[in-house]
Amino acid sequence: MHMIDNQTMKHNALENLSGNWGKSVLAVFLFAVISTALTLLTNPLLGLDEITTLKEDIIANIQGTLINYVLLMPLYVGTTWMLQSLVQGERPSFGFIFSPFRRFWRYMLTGLILVVLLTFWTLLLVIPGIIKFYSYSQTLYILREHPDYSPLDAIRESKEKIQGFKWRYLY
């Protein structure tokens, strides 16, 4: 299998993004606005504005992070896929960002599984958590390529695909 060097991939991606920077920036901005709004809405509901001890603060932050991450996962998936489509030279409509909401529970479950796995590995030690982050990094792209895969199938394939390429992924 012929491997394209990183410089060529970056050059091709920039070339395909030409004329689409506005759409890319707007997609990321929209995600940031919705994410911030959700956090501002859920924090009072979870009682995150009435923290009195460090233990309560830690527990509340973990709860808030889990809830926000899982609820935002379909939007994150759509934003990621839209950017991927633009980089690959496709011209998706802006509504593409919201397409994963049609299978909300699938992507919510994917987000929950990834959060639990990454939290577990990071609790062991920070370095294994970082390594696993890279191992699971291709999960969303695999779900796009293979809509019939379960979240665990996509995570498993992500680990296989990234095996031996973690350092290259960093560069």
TrEMBL record:
Keywords: Membrane, Transmembrane, Transmembrane helix. InterPro entries: DUF975 (IPR010380). Signal peptide: none annotated. Pfam families: DUF975 (PF06161). The keyword Repeat does not apply. It comes from the Bacteria. The chain crosses the membrane at residues 25-46, 66-84, 104-127. This is DUF975 family protein. The lineage of its organism: Bacteria, Bacillati, Bacillota, Bacilli, Bacillales.
